[in-house]
Amino acid sequence: MGGPPNKKQKREEHRNEAKAEGELPKKKFYRQRAHANPFSDHALTYPASPSQMDWTPHYPSFVATKSEVKPESDAADEATTPRLDRQLEIADIGCGFGGLLFALAPKYPDSLILGLEIRTSVTEYVEQKILAMRAQAKNPSVQPNITKLGPLDEDTKPPKSELNEDTKPPPTNPDPSPTAVSPSQVPGSYTNISVLRANTMKFLPNLFPPTSLSKIFLCFPDPHFKTRKHKARIVSPGLVSEYAYVMKPGGVAYTITDVEDLHLWMCSAFRGSGGLFEEVPGDVWEEREGEDGLDGGGKGMGEAWEAEVREDVRIMREETEEGKKVTRNGGQKFVGVWRRVADPPWP
Amino acid sequence: MQADVASQIIHHPFQCIASLEQGGGQFLLAACGAKLLAYSIAGRVIASKWCSGTTDSIAETSNGHANGSEERPAKKQKTDNKKSSPASRIISIRVSPDQSHVVVVTEDKVVHVLNVSGVGDLTELSQRAMPKRPCAVRVMPNSSTILIGDKFGDVYSLPLIVSEPQERPAQPEAEVAKSLGEPALFKPSATPLTVHTKRNLRALESQKKQKIVTPRKEPLAFEHKLLLGHVSMLTDMVHATRQVDGKIRRYILTADRDEHIRVSRGPPQSHVIEGYCLAHTDFVSKICLIPRTDLLVSGGGNDWLGVWDWLRCELLAKVDLRKAISHLLPSIDERIAVSGMWVVPVAAQTDQWTLCVACEKLPALIFIDCSALEHDSPADAAVTVYETDEAPVLDVAYYGGNAGHVLIALDDRRPDGCRLRAVQVTGTRDDSKTRSKLDISEFNTLNAPLRQLSASNGVVEDDAVLDGFLYTTANLRKRGGWDEDNEA
Ligand SMILES: C[S@@+](CC[C@H](N)C(=O)[O-])C[C@H]1O[C@@H](n2cnc3c(N)ncnc32)[C@H](O)[C@@H]1O
């Protein structure tokens, strides 16, 4: 239910302004009840199959030119759906306010990254922020908004709960984003990230073709403590099969949570995947003394691969909104890294 | 007044039927509410009756002397399960491929396994309570495993025959489940659980045929495996095999309310998803394999049937249903909901099949020649609409192999109504414009006795209540526009 009329009105006004001006949106106008039931129908729009999904509005800088579009697809809708020049590669499942997306964007400028979020207004926030960041990156000097943003990182702010943030007067420094500070350094200019409102627990196979993703992030999923509700968890034995289905062999799924029980649950779901995933041990991705992406003794997948995994884990720990919150509150973070291996041979 | 009362008397139709061959005889299994009849087709008599409940109100001539007297209906024996369970209506009947057992699922989510004797006697062997309503039930080709897909999208496998109960295990399953972080997938997660007292165990020893009942409040307190899970209501499931390099590959195909048809490997690798057949834009309620081919037909809330190469997850064609049945729909914008699909043999032909399709509340059965689906343009396959005189089709079964007798259960609630009808698909008639049409003829020698059977088994019911029980497919449709999360 909406709050008092003036609050609701303010939200509306702000959202419309942010949209019109391409300004950075303020989180407090996009907050939403924390839990959405993954079993209910919602009013979602989704493609019947991945071939019918038009991604071009999401990634306008990566639209395939006519000659790149393969003519062989026979189905009518496949032929008419506009194409990108590459496949989506990284998915942030339950992306929330999108902290991870904005941190990953400059790291992987050539990869298309998608945040998936079930809550409407949270998705809208991320959408607005992406548009604003793109605009700023394009034309850094003309953005007065940017200069207003101080160098303050959210981590340095005093801890406060998500909820009462809504009722407080707007802070002078509403939504500082570390990456927004010096947009000229950003290689990809945020054109490689986007967000989609989706119930990933139902519609992942509608969005991604088989063996298409090389990374999946599952950061701080809602814990759903009651046993009866375990099927509502975004990592469950059944869903691990679906994650495997959309991932490339060799791809990596990352999990992180501050709830130890949930961590153990997610671990046993991945470990029990019947050989679809292999655990990447902590000594691979744990931060190392004084290293900067390079370290001796790389084994297995190779040093570069390990360094990349390490960096992904660091970003996931530090750049997600939840990760920051847990840091502020001095909580513990439990990480899991799972490598997709090829399907087992038929018996 | 009296005339009014008489006109209000309505009869319960047979909501599910199946056929079974035992001891060289053919039996029709027909569920009427909570009761199951085994009807001997040759003898034209009811061989036995079974009822899902154990209430005393159901007059069963039960006594403790289990000596296998053959004419007697299934024994009702009291277990120490404290309260007797009330009769619950039957929602599914499946016969094991070896014809020896019948799996009956009732509305109270209980899976009953019955043994069938050579003369059609039904004896209940076990009752197992599932946690969620079973929506799709199959017996695997080995006749020793049951697959159950439920309302919450999970598929479980259960042994057909429950192993003998043992002494109460040290830790009841419910406790184990509560202990944390243990998703129970891909490994057997339960031990057999004793529900009997010592005294009863002794009784059990003397009565080998004592059925095994698991407590209702503690579902899954028996051996089971969770094979796979959708986050959606499961609507249908089929098991398929393919031979590759001399080896059999097994698959499980599952359909859900969110338009998916999923192709998974069969156990023990059911966690491996081979693909999805995606094209439906409304729920998928039924899927059906076409014998001898790699074709799968799907139906649901769309106006068309999907014809798939399921191994490659490729949609080959859409068969227009609306065009075929538009003259039978009450209005042009009436939605279509496919409520049943079956493959039945063409009479007097070897390995020639026809697909039957029922739409919810539609008084007709749609026949499509399977060989037409194999042609280059399956979309043009001729559709033969067999009208069933105002009575919607509830279920279809066939018996007699090459003779190809097709039994149709109809929702005819009149006291003298025709609730079961026998027809034969007698072959194809060439129709220059629409390729071949099928000839459907009534099989009259059986229809008269079936009418008698119908009359003898009426149960007075309330029309609306009956509608609510029989017609659930259209409820799968999503109500658009509603969104609990649009408001903050
Ligand atoms: C606790 S938040 C974590 C957000 C973000 N990953 C982070 O670490 O800051 C979990 C998010 O998952 C979203 N979510 C839950 N179920 C979902 C589903 N089925 N599909 C998509 N998003 C979902 C919730 O709306 C919520 O925003």
From TrEMBL, chain A:
Organism annotation: Cryoendolithus antarcticus
GO MF annotation terms: tRNA (guanine(46)-N7)-methyltransferase activity; tRNA binding
Function per UniProt: Catalyzes the formation of N(7)-methylguanine at position 46 (m7G46) in tRNA.
Active-site residue numbers: 222
InterPro entries assigned: SAM-dependent_MTases_sf, Trm8_euk, tRNA_(Gua-N-7)_MeTrfase_Trmb
Keyword hit for Transmembrane helix: no
Any single Gene Ontology cellular-component annotation: nucleus
Principal location: nucleus
Lineage: Eukaryota, Fungi, Dikarya, Ascomycota, Pezizomycotina
Composition bias, Basic and acidic residues: 10-26, 154-168
Protein name: tRNA (guanine-N(7)-)-methyltransferase
Keywords: Methyltransferase, Nucleus, RNA-binding, S-adenosyl-L-methionine, Transferase, tRNA processing, tRNA-binding
Location in or out of the cell: Nucleus
UniProt catalytic activity: guanosine(46) in tRNA + S-adenosyl-L-methionine = N(7)-methylguanosine(46) in tRNA + S-adenosyl-L-homocysteine
Automatic annotation (TrEMBL), chain B:
Entry keyword annotation includes Ribonucleoprotein: no
Region of interest (Disordered), residue spans: 59-87
Record keywords, A-Z: Nucleus, Repeat, tRNA processing, WD repeat
Major localization class: nucleus
Record pathway: tRNA modification; N(7)-methylguanine-tRNA biosynthesis
BP terms from Gene Ontology: tRNA (guanine-N7)-methylation
Gene Ontology annotations for the cellular component aspect, listed alphabetically: cytosol; nucleus; tRNA methyltransferase complex
Domain of life assignment: Eukaryota
InterPro entries in UniProt: Trm82, WD40/YVTN_repeat-like_dom_sf, WD40_repeat_dom_sf, WD40_rpt
Localization annotation: Nucleus
Bias (Basic and acidic residues) ranges: 68-83
Similarity-based family: Belongs to the WD repeat TRM82 family.
Function: Required for the formation of N(7)-methylguanine at position 46 (m7G46) in tRNA. In the complex, it is required to stabilize and induce conformational changes of the catalytic subunit.
Matches recorded under HAMAP family: TRM82
Name the record gives this protein: Uncharacterized protein
Species annotation: Cryoendolithus antarcticus
